[in-house]
Amino acid sequence: MSPHTRAMIAAAAFAYATGQTVAGVHDHAAGRDLRIGAEARGAHLQGYDGDRPAKFGGTLPELYDGGDKAFVTLEIDGLNAKGYDRGSSSHYSLTITDQIVQLYDHGQAEWFDYSIQPA
C-alpha cells in the first residue's frame, strides 16, 4: 500500500470513529506533516489530500481515492477498523488511541503511526 493511501485511510478512520474533522496528519515513518483533511457526516466522508492534490470520499464501506482512481474499503468498529485497498490488493487494520492512528499494512507486514490534528 502506498504511503499516501495509508495516511488517507488514517484520516478517514479518525473522522468516522471520533466524529471530529481532521485538519492535518503527521506521518511518523516519513517524519513529515501532510496536508490531509477529512470530515464525516453520518456514513458519508469527504476529504482532500493537498500534497497530491486529490479528493477522496464516499459512503461506508467504500471510499474512492480520486488521485489513484481506486477504491478502498473501510469497516469501522468503535475505535478499530479494517479494510482492503484495491489499488495495491492489500488488507489493513488499525486502532485509534487519543489522536494517534496505528495502522498495520498486511501487504508490507509493518505498523505505521499517524498523529491526527483535529480542526
Provide key terms for this protein.
about 15% helix, about 120 residues, single chain, mainly beta, 11 strands, globular, 1 helix, Lipocalin, 11-stranded antiparallel sheet
Topology:
Blueprint: H1 3-18, E1 22-27, E2 32-34, E3 36-41, E4 44-49, E5 54-59, E6 62-65, E7 70-77, E8 80-85, E9 90-97, E10 100-105, E11 110-118
Antiparallel strand pairs: 1-2, 1-11, 3-4, 4-5, 5-6, 6-7, 7-8, 8-9, 9-10, 10-11
- Looking at the overall shape, the CATH architecture is Beta Barrel
On the 0-100 scale, what is the average pLDDT? 97
Order of helices and strands: HEEEEEEEEEEE
Structural class: mainly beta
Query: Strand share of the residues?
Result: over 45%
Radius of gyration over all CA atoms, rounded: 12 Å
Shape: globular
